[in-house]
What does this fold into?
Amino acid sequence: MNLRGWPHSKFIRAIFALAILFGLALWNPTPLGPFLRGTFHTVLLPLEMLTSSFSSGIGDVWGFLSSIGSMKRENERLTEENIRFASENAQLAYLRTENDTLRKSVGLDMRKRYDLLAAQIVAAGGEGGRGSVIIDRGSMQGVRTGMTAIVGEGVLVGIVDETYPASARIALVTNSGTVLGGVTVENGSAGIVHGDRGLGVSYGMVLQSDQLAQGDRVMTSGAGGMVPSGLLVGTVSSVRDSGDRLFRESSILPPIDLGKLRFLYLIKE
Amino acid sequence: MNTSFVRGILVIALVLMGVSILNVSSFSRILFPIVLFSIAVSLSFSRGFIRAMPSVITIGLVADVAALGRIGLLSALSVGLAYTASFFSRRFAIEHGFMMHVSAGILVGVGAVAFICMASIISDPASWVGILTGLRFGPVTFSIASGIVVYSFVSAVMRRVETWLSYLEPHHSF
It folds into this structure.
């Protein structure tokens, strides 16, 4: 590159470059960013899929080796949990049948099963690396902005915020930009779920008169219409008053490690 | 064929593939900026800041696109670190190889901590929690320790890559 027209001072060049690059970061041009990311991840999708499979294989082996010490304790805990869940599952199956019968009798529509689209996570990043992920399904496969990403029977992972032809970006529930309505299963205390700089999830704007305790499970309320209701967000880990003492707020522990996810489902409708 | 064109294509292909592999396979998300900053500091040492700056900016911008964050942040910090590294005396660097690696590694680690803080602050300017997040004992220690180890490895690889690329100079090609 010919730099002869540039200012000669090293300091001036550095300041000039820094001003432009920091300005770009603060400006965050909306059409340019998605276009560049879309092109990059479309071109490199096969390589990213290959690398993702390879690195997760290494991660699995490493995880197995590092967990050998705690395997016995973990096994005992899981056995106890399994017995508890088997009992709860039987009760839930009975309640579901009862609920369906009651819904029929009062003329309500039956609850719909989600129409899902499976996707593989091929890259991660944003907010220090834990704010967003890239999946191997894009607009060509019917992915649209605003679709909800889940795992299992309904654990919330995030929301699609950018789509490219063969891939899409999902803002994880830990992303600062993720804001949605929530409600606790135990007491029905409504609040706002929002990501915390890619590090965790917070649950705030809960009225002082509502009950909120450690261990409460937070589900999506469906407020706003973008995210379906009844998806599990996580468990309340600690409760405190908001800065102005008008509301209560808490940190939420998601039931899954979002950093170790390899596959997820998108809710089509 | 124009050798600059061939070199340019090779460098871009290498950067694209390298950034993709590093971004996907980093077991820790701090590792990706550390590798990037190590490359920037290494280039600044080997070529000098002025000659290294176009490469540093290019690699930084590609990394910004791959890392899904704000475009410009990683590249700005890379330029800042490359500029800071240019103050290290060449005589000091040559005569005190071990100390040079330690100093450069610490510089890279500090850059990674700054990246965590700035990424948090930019995503939520009203909050100063980002600074505390980045300045916790764990990330700081891990960044600096990783910086020293990773820088040594990256600088060795960069020297080898520079040697390979030098074969494409005009006097080596037909």
Q: What stands out?
A: Chain A touches chain B through 51 residues (CB under 8 Å). Chain A has a mean pLDDT of 82. The radius of gyration of chain A is 23 Å.
